[in-house]
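ok, trying the design again with the full structure, not the truncated one.
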């Protein structure tokens, strides 16, 4: 019985450790290809590729399934710069809705070239949802429609409700909601 329990624990550890292992493929100076779990010595390798095997262990702050699926199928990119109110509202809109997005600064030449190829102009903010939907300018209704169609949740599913106010007792032993002024008065 003890052997079976030990074997199960060993298998669980082996699966967990292999779940996020890295594999290195490198070519040495003679042109020979090597596959190792350890990084190669810096002087011996000409070309190094690191591959992650499996998926890393889940963290507690992970997005809900619907958000992860939408982000996988229809990644969101916000092309933005310091354009003022419209750019600020665009960023806040995606954040409030809980949409994971990649933000690109349209002030750099590389992003400007990408933006010009994408929409034919240098205009911000631009919302790219997946490979098809491109929205110029900020308009909340159009942005919500595009995000809804992609499958993003309408509200922020991973925010927890605010905790109730702490209760504190006064001199007579009666409990009252605590307030910010420290007096205990409602």
């Amino acid at each position: 019985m003890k052997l079976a329990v030990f074997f199960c624990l060993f298998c669980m550890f082996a699966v967990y450790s292999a779940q996020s292992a890295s594999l290195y493929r490198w070519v040495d100076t003679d042109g020979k290809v090597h596959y190792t779990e350890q990084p190669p010595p810096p002087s011996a390798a000409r070309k190094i590729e690191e591959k992650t095997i499996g998926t890393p262990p889940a963290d507690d702050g992970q997005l809900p399934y619907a958000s992860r699926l939408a982000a996988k199928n229809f990644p969101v990119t916000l092309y933005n710069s310091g354009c003022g109110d419209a750019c600020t509202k665009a960023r806040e809109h995606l954040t409030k809705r809980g949409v994971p997005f990649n933000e690109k600064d349209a002030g750099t030449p590389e992003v400007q070239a990408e933006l010009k190829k994408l929409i034919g102009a240098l205009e911000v903010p631009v919302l790219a949802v997946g490979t098809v939907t491109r929205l110029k300018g900020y308009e909340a209704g159009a942005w919500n429609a595009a995000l809804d169609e992609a499958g993003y949740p309408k509200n922020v599913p991973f925010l927890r409700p605010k905790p109730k106010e702490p209760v504190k007792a006064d001199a007579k032993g009666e409990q009252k909601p605590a307030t910010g002024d420290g007096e205990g008065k409602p």
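Keeping the full-length input from now on. The first helix runs from residue 2 to 19.
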